[in-house]
Amino acid sequence: MSLPPARIASPIADVETPALLVDLDAYERNLDRMVDSLKGHPVRLRAHAKTHKCPIIASHQVSRGAVGICCQTLGEAEAMVFGGVRNILITNQVVSAGKIRRLAALSKQADIMVCADDEANLRDLDAAADVFGVRLPVLVEVNIGQNRCGVEPGAPTLALARSIAARRSLRFAGIQAYHGKAQHIYEPGQRAKVVDGAVSLVRQTVDLLRAHGLECERVSGGGTGTYLIEAASGVYNEVQAGSYVFMDADYQRVRGEGPTFENALFVLTTVISRSGGRAVCDAGLKASSLDSGMPVVQNRPEIPYLSAADEHGMLQLDGDPGSLCVGDQLRLIPGHCDPTVNLYDWYVCIRGGIVEALWPISARGANS
Ligand SMILES: *Cc1c(COP(=O)(O)O)cnc(C)c1O
User: Fold this and answer.
1) Counting atoms of ligand 1 from 1, which one is nearest the CA of 244?
2) 76, 94, 258, 306: which has the fewest C-beta neighbours closer than 10 Å?
């Protein structure tokens, strides 16, 4: 782990760059807006921690009413349990003997649930849970159109649910039905159409399971782009939004009627070179992920971030080339929050221009 790039109580000008900033006021408003937007809906929030990878943030989500968190990897879940989080759904498959033993061992320490979409994997999970003397809650992951993991809705889901219920050391804990691609459909009508189709597959599947005596105690899915549709569906009872805590440049392009979540995550960068119509900053592709487009300079739409090299970001200065000097700090809004977070060891938490806290990103790099 690297040293923190700032000291608590110092001004933002003293932060060494590139650094990952959290605007605490915006972050806290995002936490509250999520909780407020779910009032009156019969769903619980199970916030996705793959966005932030930080037990401190998970604890804020839980203290504001989330029933628990989601993790995408076993390593993330281990870091969260180590940081004091008690209730975790791993929204993914855990495969291979060593990892399955780690999963069973972890469930001695906290309430851990896992997803599965494969019969042989169920057999392995059951055997490991038996060895460790735990009863492991398992959700069937259902493919509702993302075409990532998951069995098909209907009969294939029923078959797997029955197999879980029949095993001595597993417990059928419901289904996960998440549509990742739908989150980023910019146009609200199109997005709603895709999710409505997915919801009706989920409803039919839940009804089919019920007709065979299997009640889904948990129907979990939905991300920041669609969670209000799942929440209003009457069939989901948990939503898994993650990005709402921070937002990013791509999510700000997703329009909708839901609450306005603010950008709360920034890459603080310094201009290190200036010539002609160009400025170069010290945040390149090792400081901000580029998979969902270039970062955007906060409050300076006239300065496009054109391209990135490892440690260099190229800024175009058309209108007023005198407007940026070597040494100036800028805030970049990353294109995609989750993979950007994974590039840093520390959040530098800012309020009123002062560093108020430093939070370790404990699950950074915990990809296995
Ligand atoms: C990423 C992810 C989420 C959270 O999605 P956001 O768009 O970040 O809110 C929820 N569930 C699963 C399974 C995911 O992979």
Assistant:
1) 9
2) 306
